[in-house]
Amino acid sequence: MPEIAVKSAPALPAIEHPEEKLLHQLCEILRSYLDQEQINDVIRAYHFGAAAHSGQFRRSGEAYICHPVSVAITLASMHMDHHGIMAAILHDVIEDTPISKEQLGEQFGVEVAELVDGVTKLSKIDSRSRAEAQAENVRKMFLAMAQDLRVIVVKLADRLHNMQTMGNMPVDKKRRIAKETLEIYAPIANRLGMNDVRHQLESLGFKALYPNRYTAINNAVKKSRGNRKEIIDTIQNAIQNRLNESNLDGAVAGREKNIASIYQKMLSKRISFTDVFDVYAFRIYCHQVDDCYRALGCVHNLYKPVPGRFKDYIALPKANGYQSLHTILIGPYGVPIEIQIRTHEMHRLSESGIAAHWLYKSDNDKSETIQARANEWLRDLLEIQKSAGDSLEFIDNLKVDLFPQEVFVFTPKGKIIKLPRGATIVDFAYLVHTDVGNACISARIDKKLVPLQTKLENGMTVEVITATWARPNPLWLNYVTTAKARSCIRAYLKNFNQQEAINLGRRLLEKELQSLNIQLENVDNTRIIQVLQVLKKHSMNELLEDIGLGNRMPFLVAKRISQTDVNAAVKLDDNESTHKTPLIIKGTEGIVVSLAKCCRPIPGDSIIGFFNPGKGIVVHHHECRNSNEVRKKQTTWLDVEWSPEASGEFPAEIRIELLNQRGSLATIASTISSMDSNIENITVVSQDDRVSVDLLTLAVKDRVHLANIIRKLKKLSIVLKITRIKA
């Protein structure tokens, strides 16, 4: 396609085709808030886009340019600036025509080109699945959003028009787009406070994904609307009269529930349509914030409030900036009434959200607050995407973040922190700071010590307790709810495991090379490169990590390095001793060196190590029965021994037979405690009237410590027999 140059501002074309009619409609809206020079730039963008899309048609048969102009009209109704409008008209040019980003930049400037590029899908992605490609596109869009929020506003308007006009699309594609809309785009609109767009996306998405359910609920709504109009008018008039009697200048409006939200409520509460629609919904609009609270008093005097169903989102706004008072009342005939009370300004902001930054920019700084909240959310998402392993993991984290039901808690200094419902101490700690989350060990809630998995509730004061030696635990992933906490824990564990594996791999390889009288640092760099090529590794760290994780035997790598020809197969002599010096184990190396649970070795025991692919080295007691078979494989095991500096507490299991009488276990427990040990677990194996056989898991320092505990227990008259379990 030849280069398209539209430098001057052409006049508006005569109205002959649908696209020209749409352009005239767009210009009419733009004249209400843009100057003529900016409108001329928009017209120039239209002519450029029309030429670029020339010969392209939508499934409906209309010219393709109708779609981007319709998107621009939606944005013009939000008073989007002229660069945003131009980007909307040109948003499919890079993706669907030969026009490049550079050409757009030359014609309309870098700002418009960057906006269009942010909305454009990645056309060529080396992905294994449609889901991965979709996830990568969303990830790209969020990165562009972080640079300019207009990217997502254009994308939401684009998705809204696509949803409005997908009648001729194949059913499977329609359902896939609707599912993506409900899972990603509608929640994003909600997160950015754009409730009007969100409701339209939810309704259209629900209709496309569940057409039969939509029709059934829609018919039920129409049927009940006529039956209930009288009661709605009665309630509305009663509320309006009470406001007038109190000299309050407030407007009352009944509102109809969104069909998608009716379905969601039926689904989540497991109730019938009748029960949902019994909640009549009204809004009261006031001029001042004080009037909102006075109006709340009026309606509470008119109808009885339902306990526990009042929410003050004016004092504590939602994460997307939404403000309103919510209350549920018992109205006439015993029907529940839902009432929202807000100022006119709050209503405008609740419908427009981040778009209010353009629509009401000149009125006050409320829109700036909403934009600040959106930018804060995007900063968190950027931090999440940096630590996400891939696009699918990022999408999982994003979905977690898009469906919050807020809980408000306080820091010890009185700062309010918002978290999704079900959040724990760990979620709170990571929200305060990543370093606080990584180092947390416990917390105080209202000055009482609580464990990390404690779920937070409204009004709690939370103080996190940290320690310099602490690090994230993989078990935290089982109960954290926020995307930030989940991604930070995964990122830390991934990097920690990787470094641990590299360090262990280096130790193992150096040990094997020393037995061959070779020093790793003295090996020629050319030989290292040759070995890496043969083993198909990109770097030495990658090879060391593989060794540390047990995926590659260090002895075989050492033999290959020592061979004259690194490409030759490694040969082992039957009588060759592969492990001349033992590897020193401290027991606290981390996840890549673990102690076997079958025999529970402790410092002082004779031990042996086995390579477990993907997990590193598993250390067993020398007498463990499970190790006998593995020892026959020459390269999968290695000699290890405890370091004299081994410290900490290690689990050891003992079998104890004692007289079954009152207080026996209490005596055992107090004796063990007096020996500076702790019981981690008790299992009753068998029990009769005379004897009880129990398995105890103790936390001990070493073999000597365990021997002293057993010696002390044997002196008790209730103890008949004690043995340590080694396999």
Plain-language structure description:
The protein is an alpha+beta fold and 727 residues long. Strands 1, 2, 3, 4, 5 and 6 form a 6-stranded mixed β-sheet that branches. Strands 12-16-14-15-13 form a 5-stranded mixed β-sheet, with helices on one face. Helix 1 packs parallel to helix 3, helix 7 crosses helix 9 (150-164) and helix 12 (211-245) crosses helix 13. The model is unreliable at 122-128 and 574-579 (pLDDT under 50). It catalyses: guanosine 3',5'-bis(diphosphate) + H2O = GDP + diphosphate + H(+). Residues 64-163 form the HD domain.
Provide the low-confidence segments as ranges.
122-128, 574-579
The helix/strand class is alpha+beta
Percentage of helical residues? 40-55%
Percentage beta strand: 15-25%
Please compute the radius of gyration using only Cα atoms. Answer: 34 Å
Whole-number average pLDDT? 78
Count of DSSP E strands? Answer: 20
What is the topology?
Elements lengths: L17 H13 L5 H17 L13 H11 L5 H8 L3 H4 L4 H8 L1 H10 L10 H18 L2 H15 L6 H21 L3 H15 L1 H35 L5 E5 L3 H11 L3 H5 L2 E7 L2 H14 L1 E2 L5 E2 L12 E6 L5 E8 H9 L3 H4 L6 H22 L3 H12 L3 E5 L5 E5 L4 H8 L1 H6 E6 L2 E3 L11 E5 L16 H33 L9 H10 L5 H9 L5 H9 L20 E3 L7 E3 L11 E6 L3 E6 L15 E6 L7 E10 L4 H11 L3 E10 L3 E10 L2 H12 L4 E6 L3
Parallel strand pairs: 2-6, 12-16, 13-15
Antiparallel strand pairs: 1-2, 3-5, 4-5, 5-6, 7-8, 9-10, 9-11, 14-15, 14-16, 17-19, 17-20, 18-19
Helix pairs in contact: 1-3, 2-4, 3-4, 3-9, 4-7, 4-9, 6-7, 7-8, 7-9, 8-18, 8-19, 9-11, 10-11, 11-12, 12-13, 12-15, 18-22, 19-22, 20-22, 22-24, 22-25
